[in-house]
Write a structure and sequence with these properties.
This protein is α+β, with helices and mostly antiparallel strands. The protein contains six helices and 30 strands. Among the domains are: 1-68, no CATH class; 176-317, no CATH class; 368-400; 424-435 and 450-468 and 525-538 and 565-579, no CATH class. Strands 23-30-25-27 form a four-stranded antiparallel β-sheet, with no helix packed on it. A three-stranded antiparallel β-sheet has the order 7-8-9, with no helix packed on it. It is extended and about 145 Å long.
Length: 596
């Protein structure tokens, strides 16, 4: 209905047609709950009542879907203020030539940056309107002011010179999207799959044979649009630009006035169910001012290098796109103005030099100052202290570790001779190898030979000597002097040694010690490598003894040795203090082994 008079009726008709431009379909039964027929109904009703004033919830849902697909790009652009009707006026809410700002009439202005009386900026204010204006100051150049609305849209950035976001730009028509499955068209990436989802919910496009068989009928349920006489057109080569066919498990399409048109065909001996959509309207003979929602949308890819235009699958001429891409040196894409939108790290206009990215149309790409400051603060206040703390703890741990090792070694050395030094009645003698000399011709030896022990009378003030060996296997003792005589047999390993006799087998009794012995004297045997010489002064211990030392001599069955004994290479000799040095090669008489 054409409402030429009054103006409210004309405005309602204009709103209805603009609604179709933004993807809104006619309201079906049950959509318009916002207003009754007496109140004028809804704007997108098939047959409007006089003066409708509201959009239905169905229209709002269609608008959201349209924006999600990338539609409505023109809404982001600033209107041309020179084309306003009525001329310039301060207080109309539009910033016109000669005005710095316009916040409306003085009684309704709430902008703290603008003087409503003369439409000028207040003192120290740089701006009053726009998304690139914050706190009466211009945002830093490179701050994103509009993000991409879809796969074919491009972001826009503040320029630092204007409070308004630059005009919206998107990928040039013909640019690849959806991983090469579709082409960008008017900022939207249109695919058959997307349309099936919109019509059916969970669905996918049908086999190509479904498009060919159904759209070859040339009727209301299968066609490629109408000709100039309003007759449905048959199509086969352009079948993928006609009525869309889908596979879906849903009972019916979305919408109360939409029905399913099911067709079963055979392809390669297999039955395939093709599902189309038909929308009933209140107008006879078709959809009136609304395009059939069951038809494939213009710009949808229908083949390699082909798109749907005017219900025909035509070759997509991408001459402009190819020329623009060549100018971008492989470091960017082309926007809808035919300019390069450079990748981050490259500078416009041709992306061949290092820079911040972006284009001459949508501003340079820069890191937001807030994000940069936040990142630096996080690095200095969190990351750096954490790294320093870890390094400090690691070094301290290492230092304690080395101290612990050092203290452990000291404790080992101290424990070797601690017990022996506590008892002054015993003096530890270290038996060291005798260097080969010319005066000792009768003592043949090697690095493994030791000086044999000769039993003899014990001097006054001496105590029995206890010779033991470690538990580890002992090597054979080299042949010693022929005059060595052993007066006792070694004890078997594993049995406790017998108590020493009260008197020695020698006719001479030993003199009592100069100092009384403790009740439980503690002897700390000293480990030596080879027995050759007894020095008058003790030497520090070299290694700790085992808990249960064994005898240093062991019997052997070898008849080649005169004395029938072999000695361990490591012997422990415990000597009491003596009044003077002893002759070389002589030790005190060896009493039976005593253990403590």
């Amino acid at each position: 209905q054409d409402h030429s008079e009054p103006s409210v009726g004309a405005a309602a008709t204009m709103a209805h047609e603009i609604g179709h431009n933004f993807g809104m379909t006619h309201d079906y039964d049950g959509c318009c709950l916002e207003a009754t027929a007496e109140q004028g109904g809804c704007v997108m009703a098939p047959a409007t009542h006089p003066f409708p004033r509201v959009f239905s919830r169905c229209s709002k849902r269609d608008l959201d879907s349209y924006f999600q697909k990338g539609g409505g790009m023109c809404l982001y652009n600033m209107p041309n203020m020179k084309d306003l009707m009525g001329g310039k006026k301060c207080g109309n809410g539009f910033v016109e030539d000669g005005e710095e700002c316009d916040c409306g009439e003085p009684d309704e202005c709430t902008n703290e940056c603008c003087n409503a009386n003369n439409c000028t900026l207040k003192a120290e204010a740089q701006c009053a309107h726009g998304v690139c204006c914050e706190g009466c100051k211009l945002k830093q150049a490179g701050t994103m002011c509009r993000g991409p609305a879809g796969a074919c849209d491009l972001p826009e950035y503040c320029t630092g010179a204007s409070p308004y976001c630059p005009a919206n730009v998107y990928l040039l028509d013909g640019s690849s999207c959806q991983y090469g499955l579709a082409y960008c068209y008017n900022g939207m990436c249109l695919t058959h799959e997307q349309q099936c989802l919109q019509l059916w919910g969970y669905a996918r496009p049908a086999h190509d044979a479904c498009f060919e068989d159904v759209n070859a009928a040339g009727n209301a349920f299968g066609n490629c649009g109408k000709d100039e006489h309003g007759v449905y057109k048959k199509c086969k080569a352009d079948a993928k630009c006609g009525k869309i066919q889908c596979h879906s498990a849903a009972k019916k399409p979305k919408g109360t006035n939409a029905v399913s048109i099911d067709t079963t065909i055979k392809t390669d001996g297999i039955e395939v169910k093709c599902r189309g959509t038909y929308v009933y309207t209140t107008q006879d003979g078709g959809h009136g001012d609304l395009a059939d929602p069951g038809l494939v949308m213009t710009g949808t890819k229908c083949g390699e290098g082909k798109v749907c235009r005017e219900r025909r699958c035509q070759n997509a001429s991408f001459t402009e796109l190819e020329a623009c891409i060549a100018n971008c040196h492989g470091n960017g894409v082309c926007n809808s103005n035919g300019n390069c939108h450079c990748n981050r790290g490259r500078a416009p206009p041709f992306c061949e030099k290092p820079g911040l990215g972006g284009s001459v149309d949508s501003g340079p790409v820069q890191y937001d100052q807030v994000v940069l400051v936040t990142g630096l603060l996080f690095a200095f206040l969190v990351v750096l202290p954490a790294v320093l703390l870890f390094f400090y703890c690691y070094r301290i741990k290492t230092s304690y570790y080395h101290k612990w090792l050092t203290q452990r070694e000291k404790n080992k050395k101290n424990n070797k001779g601690m017990n022996s030094h506590l008892n002054p009645a015993f003096d530890l003698k270290v038996i060291r190898p005798i260097k080969k000399a010319s005066g000792n011709k009768g003592l043949p030896h090697t690095s493994k030979e030791v000086l044999p022990l000769r039993p003899g009378p014990a001097p006054n003030g001496t105590q029995p000597v206890n010779i033991v060996r470690p538990l580890r296997p002992a090597s054979s003792l080299q042949r010693g002097s022929k005059d060595l005589k052993v007066g006792r047999q070694p004890l078997r390993a594993g049995k406790p040694p017998a108590a020493p006799p009260k008197s020695l087998p020698t006719p001479q009794r030993l003199s009592p010690p100069t100092k009384p012995l403790p009740l439980n004297p503690t002897r700390s045997p000293l480990l030596v490598s080879e027995l050759q010489l007894i020095h008058p002064s003790p030497f520090p211990p070299q290694r700790p003894l085992p808990l249960s030392p064994t005898r240093g001599l062991s019997p052997t069955a070898s008849p080649a040795r005169s004395y029938g004994y072999k000695a361990s290479p490591d012997l422990l000799v415990m000597m009491p203090p003596t009044a003077g040095p002893k002759p070389v090669g002589q030790v005190s008489a060896i009493p039976p082994l005593r253990t403590f």
